[in-house]
Input
Amino acid sequence: MRAQHTAHPFPAFPVYSCVFVASDQMVVGGGGGAAKTGIKNKLRLFNVSQDRQLKMLCEHELEKGEDAPMSIAAHPESRSVVCGINSSKESLEKGENENCRVFSISESGDALIKGITRGTLPSGALEDYQRVTVISPDGKFLAVAGERDLSLLAFPSLSPVAQSVQVPKGEIYDVTFSSTHLVLATSLNLLVYALPKPSLEDNGEKSPKKKKGKQKGKGKEKEVPSRTSSQTPELRLVDTIDIPLIPGAPAQSIATFRAARFHPSDHNTLFTAVNTVAPRTKKSKTGKKQAYILKWRVHLNGEQNSAQSISMESSRKAGEGGLTCFDVSPNGKFLAFGSSDYALGMLDSTTLGPLLSILKAHEFPITTVRFSPTSTLLVSGGADNSIRIVTVPEKFAGQSWTMIILIILALLVLLAAFLLQK
Output
């Protein structure tokens, strides 16, 4: 189906990340990166109208030498965002990298204010960066990850609630939360962890004070010491999911997970994006690339000790070329993806049927896709210095791909019956 969409060019501003902070406001991160390109790295706050127009409200220019905001997430209640921004090369060489940073929007809405920061990446990892930034639906947990290291932090304190996880093989690409579990998507498998319970102090709340009065044999109330690294619990791994055989994928293809998302309101449903590369042939120097969306049924134990069963329900080829980014609409009805062949697509989350496709949404591979909180707009960004805003057609709300197929089949049956009567 054709959809209305509008491109917005930004001179000298490659876009790498974006997130909605309200139904009509969005923060965009971009710039020239750590290289000395002369293009400044910034965060920009925009007003986004339902007729796909943009108006910049303010921008925050990062310090010279710092990297571009490569990943970003918004807290569901406060007007704040968390970004993955590497410190300058000089700081990295000293082993100093405040890569995890919180920014808040001023009450007047005309400024992005830098807040608390934390370093989570391994010291000395000059090429690593915070590629994953995800806040849990309840706003209590923050997951940030580089190439192989995952940190689970409390929000807004950014204090660790579990020991960091280092994957021995593969690369980390995504994290998604249910109410009780965290799924870490690596290139080789999905790792399912049980979530710990954060303390009151971790979430910025004060512990209940003891009642005042004389207490025999007791002195003054002692301060509760902060939790040390030795007291921080380990994340409990409850299941590992390998990449299954994908129907339709070329034989002997190499498959890798690229993204994972729980359904926003049904945490027994999980969606993953998988890229495949077919073996090279005599006629081609490189293997053919394809992308697939997989839908899983996940039954998680309420006691957080195990995943009772995880099975793939269905799959759908999303296109030629690898998927670079993926998102699920807040109402749970739509799946959106951007690919390395510059295409932007949308699927029905129930049937995985295609709903729309924009073949050349950008001039370079798409770096980010996001639905608005109302699920009425879809935004994509790319390193081609542009953002594209797509209006999600209202007909999608009641349209079912399966229903369309059934109607076509019914018409064919009626036509066959009419011809037989003759």
Observations:
- The two ends are 36 Å apart (CA to CA).
